[in-house]
Amino acid sequence: MEKKDFLEDLFSGTPQEELPVDFQKNVMRQVYAESVKMKKRNERFGLLSVIAASLLLLALAATSILYLVDLPEIEWRLPDLLSMPFYLYIGALALLLLLGDYKLRKFYEKRYYN
Amino acid sequence: MEFHADTYLLKGDTATYVCILDKYSRRVYSLVFKIVRNKEDAEELAQDVFLKAFKHLDRFKGESSFSTWIYRIAYNTAISYTRKKKHEWLAIEESAIVNVSEEAVADALGETDSSGQMEILDKALARLSPDERAIILFFYMEGKSIDEIASITAFSVSNVKTKLHRIRKKLFVLMKEIARIDYE
């Protein structure tokens, strides 16, 4: 016959502690906050990776073109500076529209998906 | 069957984590409280355990059970905290530990009612080191095997067996002494 463990009997009568009030609520609040932080961190990392990869590809392409392809001599001339304000205006407009598009998408996502 | 919430969580369903809390929060809090012996600290540490588990969910590869994995986090968190706090506990001579038998302790406690015996056990546990308390609690309260305790504590299996044997003997010495003092 197996000898009864005296301590096992004692411990079996020991109750588990009651959880503090709102314990699970507090933990889930921290978990959600951490989840948001992790998501933003991943987005930033993703964006940086895309930028780094694009720059690397551009650098590889430029290197290949400069050293592997026989380029003809190019005559550099200053562009027509009279049209510069117009080009700057178009460029600034394009950037503004891009920014506006980004902000609208974020607003739409926040409103309808969160 | 172990609950594999981790796959749902890795897919971004954070709300599933409440299932893990439902299953393990009371056990983890209970364990941490019995190791650190302070309610407020135990609450903070237990919350820390679950937050760490959430942050490092991708590290759970299923090599051990999920409960073993979360208990490992709880053990490391509680023990690190006690090391920072530098609690003092009673050192007992080896000869004193060897000479006390289980029967002698059972005899000493024989006339005490069950709540008295629990009280004596609790006082004796308080006098163990946090490491020793953790091992004995994993074995008796959580029903963990020697292998699981070795996995949780990062001690070898033989080391856990030796420690468990010594801790039981130490508990006997302490309980006999407390019973003698309190109930004389």
Describe this structure in words.
The complex is a heterodimer of chains A (114) and B (184). Chain A has 114 residues and is mainly alpha-helical. Chain A folds into 2 domains: 24-69; 81-114. Chain A contains 3 helices and no strands. The longest helix of chain A is centred in the middle third of the chain and has 46 residues, at 23-68. The mean pLDDT of chain A is 87. Chain B is mainly alpha-helical and 184 residues long. Chain B has 2 domains: 5-85, Orthogonal Bundle (Rna Polymerase Sigma Factor, Chain: A); 94-182, Arc Repressor Mutant, subunit A. Chain B is 73% helix and 0% strand. Chain B contains 10 helices and no strands. Chain A binds chain B through residues 6-8, 10-14, 16-20, 23-24, 26-28, 30-32, 34-35, 38, and chain B through 14, 17-18, 21-22, 25-27, 29-30, 33-34, 39, 42-43, 46-47, 50-51, 54-55, 102, 105-106, 114, 117-118, 121-122, 136, 140-141, 168, 171.
Topology:
The complex is a heterodimer of chains A (114) and B (184).
Chain A: H1 6-12, H2 23-68, H3 84-113
Chain B: H1 5-10, H2 17-36, H3 39-55, H4 66-85, H5 94-98, H6 102-109, H7 114-126, H8 130-140, H9 146-153, H10 157-182
Structure in a nutshell:
Chain A has three helices and no strands.
